[in-house]
């Protein structure tokens, strides 16, 4: 669908000519290498961060389990986000960085595929689920944790080319 087909002329492509939501047809698009990187953070009490870092949280290896959950979520994004295309991902990496002065853990996910549509949603989903898993595993000691700054940092490939967030 082109912007002229959109009755609201918003540039959004998930609406048909009658204004109804639909899955975008990517059939005619070329398959290219697609990469997206997203990141976010979760702030917590210093004692909660100490449990995570020391590996003494009652539920086990918080960051290890959060990494697996994030990877699994990236692979299942189309089951979670309406109108999102199911993709065969070729690579998902998830890294956590402990920021002790800020009492936070930062999550960074990089997702790759060779396909007809981008993987920004998969990278964002991985980050969100990674952070939610940390919350779930630590909520008994800190219900006030705050997830913040979740965003796409960069994307590569596809018709629109490369993009990087301004720092």
TrEMBL record:
Residues binding substrate: 83-85, 121-122
Gene Ontology biological process terms from the UniProt entry: Mo-molybdopterin cofactor biosynthetic process
Give the superkingdom in one word. Bacteria
Q: One Pfam family, short name please?
A: MoaC
* Protein's recorded name: Cyclic pyranopterin monophosphate synthase
InterPro entries, per database record: MoaC, MoaC_bact/euk, MoaC_sf, MoCo_biosynth_MoaA/MoaC, Mopterin_CF_biosynth-C_dom
Similarity-based family = Belongs to the MoaC family.
Give the protein's function. Catalyzes the conversion of (8S)-3',8-cyclo-7,8-dihydroguanosine 5'-triphosphate to cyclic pyranopterin monophosphate (cPMP).
Q: Catalytic residues per the record? A: 136
Q: Which UniProt keywords apply?
A: Lyase, Molybdenum cofactor biosynthesis
Reply yes or no: does the keyword Lipid biosynthesis apply.
Answer: no
What the entry lists under PANTHER family is as follows: MOLYBDOPTERIN COFACTOR SYNTHESIS PROTEIN A
First-tier enzyme category under EC: lyase
Pathway(s) this gene product operates in, as recorded in its UniProt entry:
Cofactor biosynthesis; molybdopterin biosynthesis
The reaction(s) annotated as catalysed by this protein in its Swiss-Prot or TrEMBL entry are: (8S)-3',8-cyclo-7,8-dihydroguanosine 5'-triphosphate = cyclic pyranopterin phosphate + diphosphate
Task: Establish whether keyword Mitochondrion is in the entry.
Answer: no
Picking any one GO molecular function of the record gives: cyclic pyranopterin monophosphate synthase activity
Which HAMAP family does this chain map to?
Answer: MoaC_B (MF_01224_B)
Organism for this UniProt entry: Massilia psychrophila
